From TrEMBL:
Keywords associated with the record: ATP-binding, Nucleotide-binding, Plant defense
Transmembrane intervals: none
Gene Ontology terms: biological process: defense response
Pfam family, one: LRR_RPS2
Entries under InterPro entries matching the protein: AAA+_ATPase, Apaf_helical, At4g27190-like_LRR, LRR_dom_sf, NB-ARC, P-loop_NTPase, Plant_NBS-LRR
Keyword Transferase: no
Protein name per its UniProtKB record: AAA+ ATPase domain-containing protein
SUPFAM superfamilies the UniProt entry points to: L domain-like (SSF52058), P-loop containing nucleoside triphosphate hydrolases (SSF52540)
Gene Ontology molecular-function annotations: ADP binding; ATP binding
Lineage: Eukaryota, Viridiplantae, Streptophyta, Embryophyta, Tracheophyta
Gene3D superfamilies: Helical domain of apoptotic protease-activating factors, P-loop containing nucleotide triphosphate hydrolases, Ribonuclease Inhibitor
Record PANTHER family: NB-ARC DOMAIN DISEASE RESISTANCE PROTEIN (PTHR33463:SF215), NB-ARC DOMAIN-CONTAINING PROTEIN-RELATED (PTHR33463)
Similarity section: Belongs to the disease resistance NB-LRR family.
């Protein structure tokens, strides 16, 4: 027991000694511990500073700081705070150790020991071998610079189409191209963002290629976004490409999108390390469509980004310029004009709006407008410099002098640039290197034009395939380049006398274009001195500028002279002149023209000549002669045309020459068509031959490549069919009094190659189409048949037909059989008019199966077909019956029109139903016009049918005498049914005497106050069943049953929030347009026109409870015009009560001052006080 106690006491003593020892150790080592802590603290501070320096550098580079680094810095900060915060306090802890008692020394020494351990751990953790940061997630690094720009419908639409293509497993390369500065980079950044957000791809990488591509840099950018570290010491691009390829192909389950922005020339994707596949797709952007094609991007997978429309452009400009543009009405009109001058080009809109942001001085805005619209803007200004640089870069990358010269030639033309003019001027300027024939020049021009179009520097005109135009900013830049680098000057019509060039500039000038020279004095033109001039163009609009023979004296280098609407008495011999165009000029005697021996191209189109001078026959080098529209021309001397042995192109349409007929009766006063057979080089011919009896046998040779020939008198239809044939290089117009057996070999040969055929068989005993061989129409694309008694029963001859027009064919009972219809797989446009016996369009052989033979049809017009009962019928159907109660829809449910965009129906009295309830196959319909369908009671058989037309933009219904409703209500219809016309912008209802409402849904029916109201109707748009969120134009005319446009439900007007124009006429029962509670919602309203509405008293109706005599005022900030004609009192002063007959409260409205408007009211308005 004693031993146990002794042992225990010994153990206690030992532990006590150890504890005392440790306690004394802390006290004894106080100084060294505190010194060590000081050193460690200084080391930690140095480490903190180094890490903070790296963090700042990484942040400045846009990197994200790692979470553990931020945690470490916080821990360090906490320790330093515990230590006292500053270095001076750290020194003070060691300065007076003798003042501390033993207990304090022990405590502080122990804490120092512990702190040293903590610091040591932090120092170890602070060794960030992998760096303090990482590149941010790609979706955070790549965002559109302007989200307002991406919210426009045009950008949303193309984004949607690109995303759909990216989601297609069969597509691995996609391209986007467009004008410089149109917003391609912004668009693809939105694509980048969406591809990640919608989980379409697991990883997305983007690299900017630029006009001077660096493969190593491109590889680095892609690798960086994929978190791949390429060896910086590796100088071989091929090795780096291998590493990148391995990374892209590493995970077979991952989908990767690589975006290459701003490509200028073909890239070898494999050299970069990219192999496109279903799992790894590539999106490329370029200014040049040809570059995308060189990357094997199919045309259908290349998306063109167009400039913004006027409305979208203004919205972007307004947001960027600042709110004051909305509020300051004095500036607003000028701001709108400035925005218009930017022509929808985003780079211009953004640059100009930023330069003018919050600028309230109207003079500065007017100066900006002048800078943007002047003929020769200065490119070094704040507004012009970015735009100029962007477009000039595209010019620099045009390959070769030919392309650049053509680009500058285009800039010297008018707004619309004619292919014809480019050929004639370009050939005269010897622009086409090594080309000596017009045919060769055409081929070269076709190539060069396509290159400019691919580069988006030249755009296709909406008017004709043979015209182009330049974006205004592209033209401005080209004009600057032409003047600065080549002494080429362009003067537009608004310049006037002040814009006339100074003498020194004229002496240097090599090309001078004057458009709209009405403001130029005759003396300016007659005293001009331009010894270096090679190209001279003058065009007057409304008057004839007079010139003298001396006007062109000293212009020995002149190669191209084009005068339009000029009085020209004579012309001095110009030794170098190649092209002379005197279109629309007053010429008088032009015998002097024979002295211009170097002429290659001569155009007298539209001039007043009546006799072609025989001296033209001496111009044996002539390759083109144009006499089009010389309506006074009656005489062409014999042997003049046959003397032009090098002639390649001859144009003689709409002239009055009476061609001589070879034989004993030839008087020798006029040329004979036989002369044309001597022109062995002739490959282009345009001619009208009014009398087919004047046709020599085999006049037309197989050498003709382009022709527009009219045989037979068309009685004033010349300009009409000339418009229709635009875009076709080979067209024939026949008004025949012969059968096919009388057609000679030359005409039959032309028929086989014709693209557009207009055939009037009113005087023919047999149908030419029916008798010709099956293979005769292989190239026919447009066929217009007039007064034919039979259409061809040919299975394959019309396989390339795109447009078919059948007009006034009285004997036809149907248009197609199944065999013909199935041979028209490319048909895009079908128009049937005034065929009084046609009962069906498509006569089907068998009963079953949905017909998809018209899968490419985009336009369908059926007009004035009094016996038409249905589009499709079988042979068993009785088409000649008179059963008006037969419930046959026009468009059978077995038909499918997936591409149809335009549907026009007019003059179809037997049609009671357009659609059957089962048909919903019109997904792309944009325009629907219905007129004079006398038995049509409703247009859409069901709400679901109407709601399926999601793309419909224009709906017009007129002169349908029994139409009661637009959309028919079905029994048992879902009470929540709502029709949303999501895209409709224009609605026109005209001449519908029995129309009660647009659509009477369940809620409208329930809200009707009585059965009588339900039966009679009166409110056009009910409670909330129909909505038009994009409607801008509303026309209501001749609707005698309509009393109110909208119901009294305040929600109604929310369906018209974008309405801009209202035109109401001859609505005899209409009391008012809108309630006071909803009138204020029409903020976009710009125009109201009202006429012949006899009982209409108020545009905005005062609601119940309004105090008599109260003046109600509404602001319509966009309103520009209020026009009221022959209506008793639409807007009047509030009448005071107390007179005989209770006075009713009237409402007026005000609109923003400073806007253009027209106000026409009756007598009661004259004393009304002005409301502002």
């Amino acid at each position: 027991m004693e031993e146990i106690v002794i042992a225990a006491l010994a153990k206690i003593a030992e532990n006590t000694v150890q504890q005392v020892g440790r306690w004394l150790c802390y006290s004894c080592h106080y100084k060294s511990n505190m010194e060590y802590l000081k050193n460690q603290e200084m080391t930690l501070r140095d480490a903190q500073k180094e890490v903070e320096r790296k963090v700042k550098t990484a942040s400045d580079n846009g990197d994200e700081i790692k979470d553990n680094v931020e945690t470490w810095l916080k821990k360090v900060d906490d320790i330093i705070k515990k230590l006292g915060g500053g270095e001076e306090e750290a020194e003070s802890r060691n300065s007076n150790p003798s003042c501390l008692n033993l207990k304090q020394r022990h405590q502080m020494s122990r804490e120092a020991k512990q702190m040293v351990g903590n610091i040591a751990k932090l120092l170890e953790e602070g060794n960030f071998v992998g760096g303090v940061s990482h590149r941010p997630a790609v979706q955070d690094r790549v965002t559109p610079r302007n989200m307002d720009y991406m919210n426009f419908d045009s950008r949303i639409s193309i984004t949607k189409r690109i995303m759909e293509a990216l989601g297609d497993a069969n597509i691995n390369k996609i391209g986007v191209y467009g004008l410089p500065g149109v917003g391609k980079s912004t668009l693809i950044k939105e694509i980048f963002k969406k591809a990640k957000e919608e989980s379409l791809f697991d990883e997305v990488a983007l690299a900017n290629v630029t006009d001077n591509p660096n493969l190593s840099q491109i590889q680095e950018e892609i690798a960086d976004m994929l978190d791949l570290k390429l060896d910086p010491n590796c100088k071989t691009e091929r090795v780096r490409a291998g590493h990148l390829r391995a990374r892209l192909e590493k995970d077979k389950e991952k989908k990767i999108l690589v975006i290459l922005d701003d490509i200028w020339k073909r890239l070898d994707l494999e050299e970069i390390g990219i192999i496109p596949s279903e799992r790894c797709k590539v999106l490329l952007t370029s200014r040049d469509r040809h570059v995308l094609a060189s990357e094997m991007v199919n045309e259908e997978n290349s998306f063109k980004l167009n400039a913004l429309g006027e409305e979208e452009a203004w919205n972007l400009f307004e947001k960027m310029a600042g709110d004051f543009v909305k509020d300051d009405l004095n500036l607003r009109n000028t701001a709108i004009e400035v925005a218009k001058a930017c022509e929808g080009l985003p780079i211009a809109l953004v640059t100009v709006s930023r330069a003018l942001k919050d600028q309230k001085n109207s003079k500065i805005w007017k100066d900006a407008l002048e800078q943007l619209t002047r003929s020769h803007p200065k490119h070094d200004t704040e507004m012009w410099s970015p735009v100029y640089t962007c477009i000039h870069l595209s010019y620099k990358h045009l390959g070769g002098t030919e392309l650049k010269s053509l680009f500058l030639l285009c800039a010297r033309q008018g707004y619309y640039i004619s292919y014809r003019d480019l050929l004639r001027y370009g050939f005269g300027l010897r622009l086409f290197d090594g080309i000596h024939t017009l045919d060769g020049a055409r081929n070269r021009l076709e190539y060069l034009v396509s290159k400019l179009q691919d580069a988006c520097l030249l755009l296709q005109s909406p008017r004709s395939s043979e015209e182009f135009y330049m974006h205004d900013f592209v033209r401005h830049v080209a004009t600057i380049i032409a003047l600065d680098d080549y002494n080429m000057f362009v003067m537009r019509g608004d310049g006037g006398q002040k814009a006339w060039l100074d003498v020194d500039l004229l002496k240097r000038c090599e090309a001078l274009s004057i458009h709209g020279g009405d403001h130029i004095h005759d003396k300016n033109l007659n005293e001009i001195e331009c010894p270096k001039l090679r190209y001279f163009y003058v065009q007057c609009e409304s008057r004839y500028l007079k010139t003298r023979s001396s006007s062109f004296q000293g212009m020995d280098k002149l190669e191209v002279l084009s005068l339009r609407n000029i009085q020209l008495s004579s012309l001095l011999p110009l030794a170098n002149l190649q092209t002379l165009c005197l279109d629309g000029c007053e010429l008088g005697d032009i015998h002097w023209i024979g002295e211009l021996k170097t002429l290659v191209i001569l155009s007298l189109a539209g001039s007043d000549i009546s006799n072609l001078p025989g001296e033209i026959g001496s111009l044996t080098g002539l390759r083109l002669l144009d006499l089009t529209d010389c309506s006074k021309l009656k005489v062409i001397p014999p042997n003049v045309l046959s003397s032009l042995v090098k002639l390649e192109e001859l144009y003689m349409r709409n002239i009055k020459v009476q061609w001589e007929v070879e034989g004993p009766n030839n008087e020798g006063k006029n040329a004979s068509l036989v002369e044309l057979k001597k022109l062995s080089h002739l490959i282009t011919l345009e001619i009208d031959i009014k009398d087919a009896n004047n046709l020599p046998k085999d006049l037309f040779s197989k050498e003709l490549e382009r022709y527009k020939i009219c045989i037979g008198h068309m009685r004033g239809l010349y300009f009409w069919y000339r418009g229709e044939e635009a875009g076709f290089s080979r067209s024939l117009h026949f008004k025949l009094n012969m059968s096919s057996s009388q057609l000679d070999f030359g005409i039959k040969m032309l028929l086989k190659r014709t693209e557009y055929l207009y055939l009037d068989e009113s005087n023919s005993t047999n149908s030419v189409l029916h008798e010709l061989d099956r293979e005769d129409f292989q190239q026919l694309k447009r066929l217009h048949i007039l007064r034919s008694w039979h259409l061809p029963e040919l299975r394959t001859s019309l396989k390339n037909l795109k447009v078919l027009i059948v007009h006034n064919c009285e004997k036809l009972k149907f248009i197609f059989s199944s065999s013909i219809a199935r041979g028209l797989s490319l048909l895009e446009e079908l128009k049937i008019r005034r065929c009084n016996n046609v009962g069906v369009i498509f006569l089907k052989d068998e009963e079953d199966g949905i017909e998809e033979v018209f899968c490419r049809l985009q336009t369908l017009v059926l007009m004035d077909l009094p016996k038409l009962m249905s589009f499709l019928s079988t042979r068993e159907t009785n088409l000649e019956g008179n059963d008006h109660d037969l419930q046959v829809p026009l468009l059978h449910h077995q038909l499918s029109f997936p591409s149809l965009k335009t549907l026009q129906l007019a003059g179809l009295p037997r049609i009671k139903h357009v659609w059957s309830k089962e048909i919903f196959r019109f997904p792309n319909l944009l325009k629907l016009h219905v007129a004079r369908c006398e038995n049509l009671k409703s247009l859409f058989p069901a709400a679901t049918m109407a709601a399926s037309l999601t793309q419909l933009k224009s709906l017009e219904i007129r002169d349908c005498g029994v139409l009661e409703e637009i959309v028919q209500r079905e029994d048992g219809m879902d009470p929540t049914t709502r029709i949303l016309f999501t895209s409709l912008t224009s609605l026109s209802l005209d001449g519908l005497p029995k129309l009660k409402w647009f659509f009477q849904g369940v809620r409208t029916l329930e809200s009707s106050s009585s059965k009588e109201l339900h039966e009679q109707g009166g409110t056009l748009f009910g409670v909330d069943e129909v909505a038009f969120p994009k409607l801008t134009n509303l026309l209501l005319r001749n609707l005698p049953k309509i009393k109110h446009v909208c119901s009294k439900d305040p929600q109604t007007i929310l369906r018209f929030q974008n309405l801009q124009r209202i035109h109401i006429s001859k609505c005899a029962s209409l009391n008012s347009l809108f309630l006071a509670s909803i009138g204020t919602c029409l903020k976009q309203l710009k125009q109201i026109r009202i006429s012949d509405c006899g009982v209409l008293e108020e545009i905005v109706e005062a609601e119940g409870g309004e105090t008599v005599g109260r003046m109600l005022v509404f602001e319509f900030p966009q309103l520009m015009m209020v026009e009221e004609l022959s209506t008793t009192a639409v807007v009047e002063e509030t009448k005071k009560s107390g007179s005989r007959g209770a006075a009713r409260g009237k409402t007026i409205f005000s609109f923003a001052l400073g806007r253009r408007y027209k106000l026409m009211v009756m007598e009661e308005m004259r004393t009304m006080p002005v409301v502002e």
